[in-house]
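Please describe our next protein:
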Amino acid sequence: MGYTIVDIQNQLFTQALGIEDPIYIEEIKFENGELHIRLNFYRGAEFLCPICETTPCKAYDTYEKTWRHLNFFQYKCFLHLPTPRTNCPDCGIHQFTPPWSRPGSGFTLLFEAFVITLIKGGMPFLELERVVGEYDNRLRRIVDYYVEKAYAEKDFSNVSEIGIDETSSKIGVADVSVVC
């Protein structure tokens, strides 16, 4: 049985992105210097409830969502999916979260990991904004999420003293509070 170029292309991107049933690649399009991968899911497909994660539920309805993914060579890449909401008999109606993302993020987990790696390496936000082609405030939300998550996992129950100081880098610039 022969495969078409589209079959091979879809199979390659399916494996590279880790896409699994019931989600599949519907279309891959290069437009305006960007790669757009349109995904869909099979009619009648069931998804685990995002709350209890045990009850398989059919899609109640969908909401079109887009995630920024890692660049494809030098081109921005976006994943599009009519994201299903499920109606769990125990938990109610909830939005499905695809395995490549986290709730509330417009980025894939791989894109977020890339941003965090660059920030941990000491890259300033201005340079990061230029490198990944995203606005500073969107990148800061990614970093803030993971910093807050890391602090939430820390145990501060043995802290008995703290030090607080304020400083200003320039006259007329808001003070910065430092807590140790």
In short: Strands lie at 23-31, 34-41, 46-48, 56-72, 75-88, 92-95, 164-167, 176-179. Residues 107-146 form one domain. The mean pLDDT is 91.
